[in-house]
DNA sequence: CTCCATTCGTGAAAGCATCA
DNA sequence: TGATGCTTTCACGAATGGAG
């Protein structure tokens, strides 16, 4: 029995799919099959009931699942304990997206480490779906993501219901009237697709018209806002910090199609160790959004 | 160092169910 | 009924480890 077999078992149990598990673990599907088969052979029991279309845990599988999760957790704690040999009291791995690191959480994390030198941190930058996978896999302790998740080993908390604002570079001359959606193309609109509810909303707002320039990173958007004197949408949480820093200004925007909300969630792995540090850190992270 | 057995992962193909 | 999706099986190659 090895860790890879246990991971395969836990993922198949959670996803109810060998194929999905293979995608998550970055192996071909038959590898998942053989790992499960090996595990079943070693345990002398079937872990899954397969019919031709669906799979579900057998009674033995259900009994074994919490033990498998505990073994994996112990393995991760062991790895973490080795990392802590260099004298830190705790080590936490935190993940969120580029935009939130750069424009919302950077100062808070910086301050946290200065006030808590006994806690070593590893910061991970990924999209929400990958962060959630890593959380489930026990590779991340704390994450801030845009999608909710329901998992036995993860505590989820809604931080804020964010929204979007139209912004421009701080040198932009704000018009004395509301910018309307039909006006966007006359204002050098630069598009950054924020995903989720924003995608559908913007499609409606723009009447499915392609944008002249699309970017995939906030820093790039800011550069173009400056050089092209253009407009672009930012989440409130990101815009707030940039307004404080005098980088951007809000441009009054009016639309008959309500600007969508976007929930931001804090995910925290249920841990037996590092609970105190994790609590301190998550409070700091939450405060950054106030 | 070489040989050989074992283990592991891969792609292709087969078999089956579901759905339009 | 064909397209699609899912799991299993099989042959193959690469990596690994033990024996001599």
From TrEMBL:
Keywords: DNA-binding, Plasmid, Transcription, Transcription regulation. InterPro entries: LysR_HTH_N, LysR_subst-bd, WH-like_DNA-bd_sf, WH_DNA-bd_sf. PROSITE patterns: HTH_LYSR. GO terms for molecular function: DNA-binding transcription factor activity; transcription cis-regulatory region binding. Residues 1-58 form the HTH lysR-type domain. It holds the Pfam family HTH_1. Belongs to the LysR transcriptional regulatory family. This is HTH lysR-type domain-containing protein. It comes from Cytobacillus oceanisediminis 2691.
